[in-house]
Structure formats: C-alpha cells, structure tokens
Amino acid sequence: xxxxxxxxxxxxxxxxxxxxxxxxxxxxxxxxxxxxxxxxxxxxxxxxxxxxxxxxxxxxxxxxxxxxxxxxxxxxxxxxxxxxxxxxxxxxxxxxxxxxxxxxxxxxxxxxxxxxxxxxxxxxxxxxxxxxxxxxxxxxxxxxxxxxxxxxxxxxxxxxxxxxxxxxxxxxxxxxxxxxxxxxxxxxxxxxxxxxxxxxxxxxxxxxxxxxxxxxxxxxxxxxxxxxxxxxxxxxxxxxxxxxxxxxxxxxxxxxxxxxxxxxxxxxxxxxxxxxxxxxxxxxxxxxxxxxxxxxxxxxxxxxxxxxxxxxxxxxxxxxxxxxxxxxxxxxxxxxxxxxxxxxxxxxxxxxxxxxxxxxxxxxxxxxxxxxxxxxxxxxxxxxxxxxxxxxxxx
Amino acid sequence: xxxxxxxxxxxxxxxxxxxxxxxxxxxxxxxxxxxxxxxxxxxxxxxxxxxxxxxxxxxxxxxxxxxxxxxxxxxxxxxxxxxxxxxxxxxxxxxxxxxxxxxxxxxxxxxxxxxxxxxxxxxxxxxxxxxxxxxxxxxxxxxxxxxxxxxxxxxxxxx
Lengths: 395, 159
Prior knowledge:
Helix content of chain B: 25-40%
Order of helices and strands of chain B: HHHEHEEHEEE
Oligomer: heterodimer
Shape of chain A: globular
Structural class of chain A: alpha/beta
Radius of gyration of chain A: 21 Å
C-alpha cells in the first residue's frame, strides 16, 4: 500500500508541529523541569470531580442531547451573563463541545467555503491555520508585535482584508503572548468590520485568567454581537483539561449549522463531563478566583525576575504564559530552547512554534509550582551568564 | 493579589525576594513588614508540618475534651493557662457545646499521654471531667494531606 498516495493531500500538506522533537528530548530526561505544557497544574476542584463521580454512581452513562444537556446549557448561559455580561439563549444559541478545540474546528468548517480567507493573528495557538486548510480555506497570518502589546491593530486588520475574507480569529487573552484586547481595541476592530460580513471567531478559553481587568468579548459590543462566535470551555478556567469540555455561543443559524456537524462527528459531548461541568458552572467561581490569584503571584514573580536577569519580558495581561524576548542572547528561538533544555534541563517552547512572528521569543507556562519557577529562573540566569561568557571569549 | 501573610501561610520558606515579586512589593518593604508582623505577634512562628510515621518515630497524639467548673471568660483563661504551660500540650481551644476545652497533646507512648491526663490534667482544681480520644491516623493537617501525592501524569501535549 502506498500510503502517501492514499492519505489525503490536504492533511499531508499540513506540516507537523516542530515541537515534537523537542518533547522527545524532554521525555528522555528524568530530572527536567517543564514549563512547556499549557495546562493548569491544579487538579480539578474536588466538588467538580465529585459531581462527575456521583453521576456515574447514579448510572448516567448514556448519550445526552446533541447540543448538550439542557441543564448545562442553562447554567452556561447564567454563567456567561454573571461573569461576562453576555446574553445567549440556552435553547438555541449554545452548543456543548469536546473542548474548545472542537468548537474552533466546527466554527471554521461551517463558515469557510473553498478559497475563503481566514485572518489569523500570530503568534497564537497552533490550530487555526491547519483547521482552516482542512476546511479548504486559506489562512492569512497577521504578525502582532510586542510594541503594540501583541494586540491586533485596526490598520493591520484593514491591510489583511480582501474580498475573499470570510472570518477573523481573535485569540485573546493570547496563548502564547499573554496579550489581551480591551474594549477600545475591539471598538476599533468593529469600525473596520462594519461595512462587510466578516465573521469573528473569538477564542476566549483564557477569559477567566486576566490580571488587572475583566475580559471583554467582542460579543459584548452591540456592533459585533451578530457576527461573533464565542468559543470557551472549562479546561483553563476550572482546571479540567482532561474532561474535554468546551462550548460555543453564536447567533442561532450558526449554532444550528455547527450542531448539525457536531451530531455527525461527535454525537454528544461526554456525559460524565457534562455533569461535572454543571457543578463547575454553578459553584466554581471561587475556584477560579483562587487559581487566578495563584497564577497572578507566579506571573509577577516571573516577569520581574526575567527582566532582572536580562530578558525583556512583555507584561502578560492574561492566560498563564510569559513570552520573553530572547534576541539579546544572539540565538534563534529554536537554538535557545534546545540548548537551554540540554544544558540546564528546563523546557520552554520556541516562539516560532506559534506561527510567523514568534522568532526571537520563547514561551514559558507559569502554571507550575513556585519551586519549579524559582529553580527555572536560577537555571536560566546561569544559562545566560554562561552564554555571555562564551560569546565574550569568541568575540 | 495575595497579601504577604497569605503567601507565607502557603509556604514560609520563600525568600523575601520571592515574596516581594509575588506581592508586588520591594524586598525592603517585605523585610520591614515581616519584622512588624513578628513583633506584633501576628506571625507566631514558622514550622514544618511533619508526617512522623514516615520517619518511623513513635508518636502518639490525643484529643482531650475537658470540662471545668462554670465560670466567666477570665476564669477559663486562667485554667487554660495552667494547662497549656505544659510542653506536652500541642494545641488548645476554648469550645462551645458539651465540653469547655479541647486539649491536643502528644507524647512518645500511650502511657506517657495517659499519665499526663491522669496525673497533671484531671487533678487540676476546676477540672470536673476529661475524655481522652487517641488519634489513630492523620489524614490532613493545615491543608496538607498525609499521603504522598500520586504523581501527576502530564503528557507532552502541545497546547
């Protein structure tokens, strides 16, 4: 069998993530510290786990309705109103998905016709481009800069729009930069979009993790509500990555189309996870506050210390990543990460993994213990000093 | 943002520099505030929480309910002081409900604890009764679980 002939050209054309080789090195090391994985280090709060266990004890092991349990959707609607001032009708504007990832995939697939362009700000999470290509669309990358606080500016957006533009992805708060879009930034975006039908896919998986100000969704703006697909989930806010629970809210026709696709591909999101999610929506606000406070103190520690040891670090306003600039080391992002891992046994991710515009940066996740963070900083200090010494000798 | 005290309550082995970065203070401010908190008695001390079973050291802990002759709050304080002065007393609380004082004591052996209750505590003037409960197993103390956490498998998923 010639599998190169058999497997679809579309998927073959998608480049595998360059990170894999890096994780392979890491897996061989037993004593390495990993700041590479983007997931909370907390275990799901007990009362949420307990709700999942209890649902199993009562024998709730069947499919739910395709869109997700009505009770869960009602709780999601309440939660969104309470936390973010967002109004969605739980009977026809909310779909429960297998993580935010499925929601992103569905959104792109129900919007994109072959040849349609999707504007994707980068550096950002890796899935938007490949999913667009699988849907027959064309990713159009817009490089955000530290000087602009890794925000998408209206000028950049205007320059990227063509008659084929179908959708704009807004991945804020941002993985990997920690950048956010404030209300006035979104108003400027709305101004650019007002005379066309471009849809906004807003990936708000880190919405609960902002520091200093509440998250603003594009759907909070009346001008953008009708064109916005809000993607969110439980993974980052409630430390529930393994439960695979996400949801998407949008105007009714978009949700109807997504539900159609979801029922063929998925049927319904995992039932146990849905029961746990109901509990998370009802009584999880305090857990969020607690975890956010933890992340915030680690964030402060890292930003201050990265700058202290000589790496310029943009102050992240959201998510749980720092994205320091490593140009002063004279190394590329890839070299920096590989050498730092081999020499000091700490894993961080090269910015280039997050698309064009990531060169010169690395991502470190601070959802790790203070002990690991402190140790990582001292190893990084050591690494940089050795580097300077060697460079001094060479020069 | 966490306050200095909250950060210390979680882990008091952190250096002033670490505390400063997290609390949004300077190192000098942290040292200054620590000194004040210690002097005012807001911070009583810094201790490790130890699972003595893991180091195979024999140690017995008992929770003793103590009833005393009814009296004013001052009166309770006086009796309490006469009890907590003993080194064997680990913790002690004034209670509402069916008895008056909870005394937590620890010793090397059962006999040592029993002796303390019989010879020191029970005969005290004002003490009308005691009930001693030996602690068989500790599950959790100060938010820390007496079980080595299961290693959290973190797969190398790129997210």
